[in-house]
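FORM 7B: Structural annotation worksheet

SECTION A. Query
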Amino acid sequence: MNQTLRAFGWDDAWAAAFATHAAPGVEPARVVVELRRHYYAVQTATGELLGELTGKFHHGADREAQAYPAVGDWVAVQVSSGGHRAQIHALLPRRSCFSRQAAGEAQVEQIVAANIDTVFLVSGLDANYNPKRIQRFFVAARDSDAQPVIILNKSDLCDNPDIVREEIELLVPGVPVLITSTHTRKGLKSLVETYALPGRTLAFVGSSGAGKSTLVNRLLKDAEAMPTGEVREKDGKGRHTTTRRELMTTPTGALVIDTPGMREFQLWDSKEAVEDAYPDVVGIALRCRFTNCHHNAEPGCAILIALESGELPAARLESYRKLKAEQVAKAPAQRKPSALASKPGWRKKNEGSTPYRHRQHKEE
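SECTION B. Predicted structure
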């Protein structure tokens, strides 16, 4: 097995998935940067090349967002005779996929990162802190098939970070919650030793100003690897210092993807993940007298009883209802094979040189 590809996460399972595309002159590559529409920097066994989708690929994708490559994807490419460019012929089935609904009113899926092992949901312990946003990110992470980990960053700006961690652990039971500070380096050693393992792919997501890029720089041990910026004092909101997704290697051999800050985050087709994220609410509802209970004023409603007794916090039920209502509202407009095809599980069943990343204009 080629050691360069192995360093980018290639393994026997990926080799088996690539076998159906194997042909003379065709080789595997991983997407490391989205440069501009349908142009990518791809890592091959011999180096990083500029990749472009073939016309046949476009025709087969039929304008479905999830059918196009994203950072972290593995693709089948054919390198040009000059060895500087590559034609992208096929997309290998994804193991995981973190998606959101693209910003705006149109219901379009935007793939944030693909084939990630761990997704870090970063929130700053300053004016950036928002428990409801953390729950929303968590639902998307559960839907991605990647391991979710919550990072409470900027702990040096919080008097009682452990109390905040306890609050979040109650909101998202069973999910690791880390406290970090890039200023004091609190928690960074544990983050590296536990998660930044050779061949593992990590993605950092969160709102602008949460400190994602600075955390990535600490993992890369390069203070200038990703641009960073200060938050605005008047509202605690950050500037979009990261403007595109890019996969990079760390000194420990892990791969990391930083993503642009998200001031707006709408879930994409996460019905099952919402249920998974609120097992307490779902479990209590199963005790209701009627199976079609709406939890308003029905007799024998276990949800209402749990609210009165304090077993179920009202804020948690409110958050659950809001996310469920959001999914119900989207359901008629989402096109189902598109939504189904965006699920990694559904797919499993059905289915040149480094300067490029620095010369191209930065775009999201």
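SECTION C. Observations
The CA atoms of residues 151 and 178 lie 5 Å apart. The chain has three domains: 3-93, 97-258, 278-323.

SECTION D. Sign-off
Analyst initials: ____
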